[in-house]
Write a structure and sequence with these properties.
The chain is α+β, with helices and mostly antiparallel strands. It is built from 26 helices and 16 strands. The protein has four domains: 49-289, Beta-Lactamase; 375-542, Alpha-Beta Plaits, CATH 3.30.70; 555-659; 665-769, Homeodomain-like (Arc Repressor Mutant, subunit A), CATH 1.10.10. InterPro entries: CdaR_GGDEF, Homeodomain-like_sf, HTH_AraC.
């Protein structure tokens, strides 16, 4: 059996081997893991018990000393003795005190020395004898004892003159652990001191022996080493070590954690004492914790290796048995003779790959042929429906092709759905994605509406169109079904693509020849989105299609908008624009009238912009502005566009002009004209106010504004006159007087020259059109 020829056989062997190996590896791994965890837990528990036992041994000694020493210093005769002066003549009193002190120093308490100090009579007694307390150094030591916070405290300090250790091993210790009691214990007055001294070396012997992998020490609350196997370490401070800071931060009385000290990993075991706030710390190297797991690991590895060898043997011989029928089938399909080396056309193919390749080739040919036929039919259907909706087929051609393409003929009514995307604003899409989005929507519509209730959907220009069919339903139920289907389509598109779409629905028709008319009705219905807003379903038959061309326009709100722009009040201007557009759409029920009113607003804004001396757009750009605003389909988009493209830029320009430190001369003149147009303004008076020569002002104004001062003043007054004629009831005479004309005839002649009609005729025409 050759490897290149029978690839599947070796895959089968590998599969069985892996299948039998995985349980062995998993069981071995978790067995070793569990054993290691158990051993590690036992070792850590043992360390906790060791630290606890060490604490118990040491504190037993300290508490015994504390208890016996406290009973001794509380005695009344001792307190009285502190107030007496001991002289050589009072040898009996000294002998009694010395005897009592020696009785306290038993072997089991490790006491090395006891010192009794009388601060009042200036003497002290210890193992060495009776001395006077008259040395400055001794007085300093006594004051330090008196400054202890507690009247009974354990302190670590070096040997000194007050405390003299006995001879022997303890005498070699540099540090003693002293129990200092301020006498009397129940009074704030310090008459004397009693000090019991235990050599630190004696207490160290009570701790477990140090090994290569572990050690133990005792610390006070400030991190100073009290007990340590190395006597040279006693008295050192480790308060800045990270592991000590962590022990202080931990709230538990005992515990363990891992840390690294000098590039060595340790398991720290600690125990906090409630008796004297000492901290007992044990250091164990991490490798020590895993020493006992090594033998278990090797034993587990040996067992697993033996089981894996058995698995390999089972896989090899078992696969031969399972592969025998496959081998016969392979050699039959490939046409080779058993035992030869010519099986298969491709020597790199396995047995099943050869069989699969031959079958796939056959299936792919059939599949490709089927897809081509379906694609051609689908394309023909969409082409036919597109031409049908555009009205480019005759009635006879429509009936013939409709039946030939396999469309159903058992319907009674048809209606056309026209769907358009409301806006791409606040979506991740751009205009260039519109075609792709429409085809995606086309697919979603076909999934949302059952095939038996529609014809295939098509995309025409920027509109997705679907012909809906009614099969036996009443017209009322058909309308309800169309509304439900439209809402379902909107929900699916919003959920899948995050887009808002509106749908226009035509009236139901009974003839295919009316499909074009139905399509136009759907498009007409969509124009009413300007009033209805986003995600609307609009039935053509429910529209108010008033043909009277009478456009309503709220001039007062427009004037308030212009005043807000002049005041550079962005927030107020936005509110007035919103109110103005709402008023336009509420007063004009026909969307075409709304568009005319919006175009009028845009025109008035451009005219107002020029009156303010603002040039935001190129002269050839006005046509593009109208194209842009007519492409907007919702009132929200129109409002946003006007704010961003027109009003916002006007206010920005006016703000810069107003806030600029160095306004140019012509802008100042324009500002004066707009504020004082109803006064006797002359270029000479303005020149005096601005401290310039009139001729210089005239040349500067004409150069920058492309118009003379008098022409601009007349033009602005003419603009005001038109506003007063259409928005007020002032007479022509009153208007001429307010605008400082010499007489009404001069005003009438000037107005007729500019407008082609008299002021009275202008007012009559404007009032009639409104």
């Amino acid at each position: 059996m050759k490897k290149k020829q029978y690839k599947f056989y070796y895959k089968l062997v590998t599969f069985f081997f892996i299948l039998s190996t995985i349980p062995v590896i998993i069981v071995g791994f978790f067995s070793y893991q569990r054993s290691a965890e158990t051993i590690e837990q036992n070792v850590t528990n043992e360390k906790l018990q060791t630290v606890g036992q060490a604490q118990f041994n040491i504190e037993h000694i300290l508490k015994t000393v504390d208890h016996s020493f406290t009973n001794y210093v509380r005695s009344y005769p001792l307190i009285q003795t502190l107030s007496r002066k001991i002289t050589p003549e009072r040898f009996q009193l000294y002998n009694q005190i010395n005897k009592e002190l020696n009785e306290l120093q038993t072997f089991d308490t490790d006491l090395s020395d006891i010192t009794l100090i009388s601060q009042e009579k200036k003497w002290y007694i210890n193992n060495s004898g009776l001395y006077n307390l008259d040395q400055p150094k001794l007085a300093l030591t006594v004051s330090l004892y008196n400054s202890l916070k507690s009247r009974s405290s354990w302190v670590l300090e070096k040997n000194n003159a007050l405390v003299a250790t006995k001879e022997g091993a303890a005498g070699k210790c540099l540090y003693n652990i002293n129990l200092v009691k301020q006498l009397p214990l129940n009074s704030m007055e310090n008459k004397g001191l009693a000090i019991a001294s235990i050599p630190s070396c004696s207490l160290v012997k009570r701790m477990p022996l140090k090994s290569k992998t572990s050690s133990m020490m005792a610390l006070d609350d400030n991190g100073r080493i009290i007990l340590h196997p190395k006597s040279s370490m006693i008295g050192h401070s480790i308060r800045n070590e990270d592991y000590f800071k962590k022990i202080r931060q931990l709230s538990t009385k005992n515990g363990q954690f891992d840390t690294s000290i000098s590039n060595t990993d340790y398991k720290i075991t600690y125990q906090k004492s409630d008796y004297n706030n000492w901290i007992y710390v044990s250091f164990t190297t991490i490798p020590e914790l895993y020493q006992q797991t090594t033998s278990i690991g090797w034993f587990t590895f040996t067992i697993c290796a033996f089981l894996l060898a058995l698995s390999l043997m089972f896989s090899w011989f078992g696969s031969r048995h399972f592969y025998r029928p496959i081998k016969v089938l392979y050699e039959s399909v490939s046409g080779s003779v058993p035992g030869t080396d010519s099986a298969g056309k491709d020597r790199h193919e396995s047995e099943f790959e050869l069989i699969e390749r031959n079958i796939k080739e056959m299936k792919n040919k059939n599949h490709d042929l089927t897809i081509r036929v379906k694609q051609q039919v689908t394309q023909l259907k969409q082409y036919f429906l597109t031409r049908l909706l555009l009205g480019k087929l005759s009635e006879e051609e429509t009936k013939e092709r409709f039946k030939g393409l396999g469309f159903p003929d058992d319907w009674s009514h048809l209606a056309v759905f026209t769907l358009q995307i409301d806006t791409l604003k606040d979506t991740p899409y751009e205009k260039r994605d519109l075609d792709v989005l429409l085809f995606a929507i086309n697919s979603l519509v076909e999934r949302s509406v059952p095939k038996e209730k529609r014809l295939p959907s098509v995309v025409i220009d920027k509109t997705q169109t679907t012909i809906m069919l009614n099969r036996g339903q009443s017209l009322d139920r058909l309308q309800q079904h169309l509304k439900t289907a439209a809402s379902s389509i909107q929900d699916h598109i919003h959920k899948e693509l995050g887009l808002c779409v509106s749908i226009g629905i035509s009236q139901p028709f009974t003839s295919l020849s009316m499909t074009k008319h139905a399509y136009l009705e759907g498009l007409e219905a969509l124009t009413y989105r300007l009033q209805s807003g986003k995600r609307t379903v609009i039935f053509f038959e429910q529209l108010d299609r008033n043909k009277a061309f009478l456009t309503q326009f709220p001039k007062q709100i427009q004037n308030e908008l212009f005043e807000a722009i002049k005041a550079c009040d962005q927030e107020k201007a936005a509110k007035k624009l919103h109110l103005l557009l709402e008023s336009i759409c509420s007063e004009n029920t026909n969307p075409h009238h709304c568009q005319v009113a919006i175009a009028r607003l845009l025109n008035n804004l451009i005219e107002f912009m020029h009156l303010l001396g603002i040039e935001l757009f190129e002269p050839d750009g006005n046509k593009m502005l109208y194209d842009d605003i007519f492409e907007l389909t919702t009132l929200e988009d129109v409002e946003s566009w006007l704010n961003a493209q027109i009003i916002g830029k006007m206010i920005e320009t006016l703000s810069v002009r107003e806030e600029s430190q160095y306004k140019n001369i012509s802008e100042k003149i324009v500002h004066i004209i707009q504020q004082e147009f109803d006064t006797d303004l002359t270029l000479e008076s303005i020149a005096g106010r601005l401290h310039y020569n009139p001729n210089y002002l005239s040349s500067i104004f004409r150069k920058e504004m492309k118009i003379s001062f008098s022409e601009y003043l007349s033009s602005y007054r003419h603009h005001i006159a038109k506003s007063w004629l259409t928005e007020t009831t002032l007479s022509v005479k009153e208007i001429s007087e307010k605008l400082k004309y010499k007489n009404p005839q001069n005003f009438i002649r000037s107005f007729k020259k500019l407008e082609g009609i008299t002021p009275g005729k202008y007012r009559e025409l404007k009032n009639h059109s409104a």
